[in-house]
Amino acid sequence: MLAARAAFVERPDADSISVPLGDDSLSVDAGGGWRVPNEVPAEIAAQLDLYVPYCLPHPGGLCVAHIGQSLDGRIATENGESRWVTGEADLLHCHRMRALADAVMVGARTVRADNPQLTVRHCAGRNPIRIIIDPDLSLSDRHSVFCDGTVLTVVVAAQEHANGRGEMHGSEVLGVPRVGRTLDVAAIRCALGERGVSIVFIEGGGITISRFLEAGCVDRLQITIAPIIIGSGRPGIVLEGVRPLDCALRPRIRRFNLGGDTLFDCEFDA
Ligand SMILES: NC(=O)c1ccc[n+]([C@@H]2O[C@H](COP(=O)([O-])OP(=O)(O)OC[C@H]3O[C@@H](n4cnc5c(N)ncnc54)[C@H](OP(=O)(O)O)[C@@H]3O)[C@@H](O)[C@H]2O)c1
Question: What separation in Å is there between the alpha carbon of 204 and the centre of ligand 1?
Answer without folding.
Answer: 6
